[in-house]
Write a structure and sequence with these properties.
- By secondary structure, the chain is α/β, with parallel strands linked by helices.
- The protein folds into three domains: 88 residues, no CATH class; 104 residues, Elongation Factor Tu (Ef-tu), domain 3; 141 residues, Nucleotide-binding domain of ferredoxin-NADP reductase (FNR) module (Rossmann fold, 3-Layer(aba) Sandwich), CATH 3.40.50.
- The chain is 20% helix and 26% strand.
- It is built from seven helices and 17 strands.
- GO terms for molecular function: oxidoreductase activity.
- This is Oxidoreductase NAD-binding domain-containing protein 1.
- One of its GO terms (cellular component) is mitochondrion.
Amino acid sequence: LLKSHGLLKRHYGVCRCRGLWLVAKLSRLHLPSGCFTEIDVQGFAPPDSNEHNEIQKENRSLGENRKCRSTGEQLISSKEETLTSEKGRWTSSLLPFPCAGFSPPYSDSKKLIYHLKGCQGLGNKESSSFTSVVAAAKVCGAAAESPSVKRLHLLVADKDFSFKAGQWVDFFIPGVSVVGGFSICSSPRLLEQERVIELAVKYANHPPALWIHNQCALDSEVAVRVGGEFFFDPQPADASRNLVLIAGGVGINPLLSILRHTADLHRARASTGGGCEVGTVKLFYSAKNTSELLFKQNILDLVNEFPEKIACSLHVTKQTTQISAELQPYITEGRITEKEIRDHISKETLFYICGPPPMTDFFSKQLENSHVPKEHICFEKWW
């Protein structure tokens, strides 16, 4: 149908779903073959030239990879740039709870992932970074991490559910038609040992975030599905790499997962003498004030446990109260500077950046201007 209307030129597909235009650059969504969703094409009509040009302009401005959905329908592609057959269709029957018209694969999160080629960097280069497993999960813990962020522990019993440090989950809530997208902040080892993942969700008017802050309780049942190309997954045969992690605000979540994963790798190597060899990790983390520096005690505990391997520089931009004596050695008032990052550039170093678009744009551009190879830079944007 799309081809018959000439809408696959330049590998773009456009379809009207319930009155909204959905756009996807079909060859760049990196979904596993056969992972599609049903598309409602009732009332389909090709766009006029001005509307089509605006769609293409918007899609280019949002980068290579984007999430597209509207009230449950998504425009999805395969590597062969073809749409779905009945065999590959997602339906609500795949969820562990009834939810009419609910089609999983992509989420309506306020997140865009800009993946520079090769930023996986270490290990599993041929594996897909998306999984088809939609797993039932139960809330087994909840607490306030900051005045605006709530921390959740989810028990995921399904042994087929796994993730790589830095990835996110699509978050499906019974009775809520919008799907959330939240980065995992725990390490893969916690899931392996206890079948638990941890999320930290900032308060927002986005329906999934509102549900988490206002309605979520112990034993609430949801479903989760892993995705994302922002991850660190070294293998034993890989050369040791240093990491620089640059976080802004709630962008600490995937980077904390990576930091915790490197700590687990250091512990495993110290106890067995084998496994993955990881170099040093330096975390630069900026927030408005110390109360919004999430997981700061967890971060400092890792710094103290591995003083030769892990270091951090915590920045506050709008601090109005006195900084505690415990935090003072690690706190800098003001933004993270270009010089601080430039001092850590080397051919063995990988850079992971997650935060607001202005910060992410600035540091990714500065690293490129400093001749850091693109395959050594990986960043995730929030908007």
